[in-house]
């Protein structure tokens, strides 16, 4: 047997030498996992299940074909910002910035607020990117557990704000993965307390199309509140476009760390087209809300199943064995989200995206058989 060549030894010695340059906390992390949905009824990611009507697909295709792909995004992005500010009923004296989905906006907030000793705070269980973006910027994150029925623990939140004096408090309105729309008076007391200690509030309204309330009509009372939304739940998850509204001076500071040309011309034109046809998406949201209520009633009638109130396009359900049920549904071609390991409060919980009437019938049948 021949001895290894010097070049082979050199490759073996240097194969993983680069690891010393990778942060230890990053090496211990797991990348955001997306489930394989090939051939499945996909009800795991809170997407709008409805596609554009064929006529609008044709019009959008013609419009995108005329976009100048050889040019960087320009004036049309400004047009989109103005259209979104009108659509969202942005108050006077406020400004708007765009992100490649809400995820980028969350990352930009972390980058902007990464000063020595800074910390962020949010209720748990909640959206995983709040903690992850903080960690990636070296900002300490404090999670405050919700109550057993997924309401805000007001006393614990106010105590944590007083103790940690966080730079940012995230409040998802409604919350992911629970779908809870927390009490407006409790929200307001937390907003005031955070303002009094000199911090910021980020109201994350990703699921606003399905909720009965918005904080937009109260944001003008405060100079420390940012309101974040996304067009993903509106019906454009594949376009990846989020936006954030806030006081002009505050938006201006965060906008300084935004990468240039972060919104592509195709994303921009798709979003403008969607806003011009907003009534189509509003009708889809109405259908989803109706289906959510019907599905909630049907699920609550199943033995051993607890359904939690939701004002999002998803339902959180608890059952005797979530993992068994998840795997059983998967073998029947229905993909949902097993959140039972995300937090102790979510023990034996699945998160079910509300689909079309046909998809919901299939999901319900698969869940019944898998219990």
Properties at a glance:
371 residues; alpha/beta; Aspartate Aminotransferase, domain 1; Aspartate Aminotransferase, domain 2; 2 domains; seven-stranded mixed beta sheet; four-stranded antiparallel beta sheet; 13 strands; 16% strand; globular
Descriptive account of the structure:
With 371 residues, the protein is an alpha/beta fold. It folds into 2 domains: 29-46 and 279-370, Aspartate Aminotransferase, domain 1; 70-276, Type I PLP-dependent aspartate aminotransferase-like (Major domain) (Aspartate Aminotransferase, domain 2). Helix content is 42%, strand content 16%. The chain is built from 14 helices and 13 strands. The chain has helices at residues 6-14, 24-27, 54-65, 75-87, 101-112, 128-136, 154-164, 184-196, 232-236, 248-255, 265-276, 278-300, 322-331, 357-370; strands spanning 41-42, 94-99, 119-124, 140-145, 168-172, 200-204, 225-230, 242-247, 306-307, 314-318, 334-335, 337-338, 349-353. The strands form 3 sheets. It has a 7-stranded mixed β-sheet, sandwiched between helices. Strands 9-10-13-12 form a 4-stranded antiparallel β-sheet, with helices on one face. Strands 1-11 form a two-stranded parallel sheet. β9 and β10 (314-318) form a beta hairpin. α13 (322-331) crosses α14 (357-370). The radius of gyration is 23 Å and the shape is globular. It starts with 5 loop residues before the first helix and ends with a helix. The mean pLDDT is 94.
């Amino acid at each position: 047997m021949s001895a290894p060549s010097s070049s082979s030894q050199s490759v073996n010695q240097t194969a993983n030498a680069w690891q010393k340059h990778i942060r230890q906390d990053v090496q211990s992390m797991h990348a955001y996992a997306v489930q394989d949905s090939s051939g499945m009824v996909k009800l795991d990611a809170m997407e709008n299940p409805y596609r554009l009507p064929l006529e609008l697909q044709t019009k959008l295709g013609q419009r995108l074909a005329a976009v100048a792909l050889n040019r960087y995004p320009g004036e049309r992005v400004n047009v989109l910002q103005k259209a979104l500010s009108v659509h969202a009923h942005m108050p006077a004296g406020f400004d708007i910035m765009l992100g490649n989905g809400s995820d980028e906006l969350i990352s930009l907030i972390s980058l902007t607020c990464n000063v020595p000793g800074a910390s962020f705070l949010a209720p748990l269980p909640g959206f995983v990117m709040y903690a992850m973006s903080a960690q990636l910027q070296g900002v300490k994150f404090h999670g405050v557990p919700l109550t057993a029925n997924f309401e805000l623990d007001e006393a614990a939140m106010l105590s944590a704000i007083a103790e940690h004096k966080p730079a940012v408090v995230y409040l998802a309105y409604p919350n992911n993965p629970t779908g809870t729309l927390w009490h407006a008076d409790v929200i307001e007391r937390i907003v005031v307390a955070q303002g009094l200690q000199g911090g910021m509030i980020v109201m994350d309204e990703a699921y606003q199309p399905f909720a009965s309330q918005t904080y937009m009509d109260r944001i003008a009372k405060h100079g420390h509140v940012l309101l974040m939304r996304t067009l993903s739940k509106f019906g454009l998850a594949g376009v990846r476009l989020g936006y954030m509204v806030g006081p002009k001076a505050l938006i201006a500071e965060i906008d300084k760390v935004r990468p240039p040309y972060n919104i592509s011309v195709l994303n921009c034109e798709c979003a403008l087209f969607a806003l011009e046809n907003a009534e189509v998406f509003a009708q889809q949201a109405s259908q989803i809300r109706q289906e959510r209520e019907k599905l909630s009633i049907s699920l609550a009638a199943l033995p051993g199943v607890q359904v939690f109130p939701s004002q999002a396009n998803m339902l959180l359900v608890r059952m005797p064995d979530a993992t068994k049920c998840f795997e059983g549904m998967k073998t029947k071609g229905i993909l949902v989200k097993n959140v039972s390991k995300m937090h102790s409060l979510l023990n034996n919980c699945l998160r079910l995206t509300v689909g079309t009437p046909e998809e919901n019938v299939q999901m319900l049948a698969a869940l019944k058989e898998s219990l």
